What does this fold into?
Amino acid sequence: MSTAKDAFDLLSEREKRMFQGREAPESFPVSLSEEEWRERLSDFEYQVLREQGTERAFTGELHKNSERGTYYSKATGQPLFSSDSKYDSRSGWPSFYEPIDPDSVRYRVDRSHGMVRVEVVDSRSGSHLGHVFPDGPDPTGLRYCINSASLEFVPEGKEAPEKL
It folds into this structure.
């Protein structure tokens, strides 16, 4: 069985230091049955968040969003990314160079599709958000490539979603 450590072994020493101690645990504080997740999420959101699916490049509703505000987890309502760290990576997905709080996300190895990647999950529920790659801009050099379907955007000055 692969572990987050396997994926981390492929990273540079600098990147390893950034992710160390942030591997996804076996269980998470928010633990709902799959039936409860299906009731809370649309079919597509469920596919992305709970079944590690992805949206096609350039199709996500938040891909070109340039409003100031905060991106929250669609699964738990916790804040994940600020518009201040969003940039156009030309990858086709909303991209950020860092999370709002390092503790808002966790990491695990993803060996699907014949690749080894670092998956990014919501630290409260383990729900799939996207992946992180070591080809982003300064100051972190990271590209958090996140599915719009896993995010809820709240414009600056508006009320945050209810947290699970």
Q: What stands out?
A: The two ends are 30 Å apart (CA to CA). The first helix runs from residue 4 to 8.
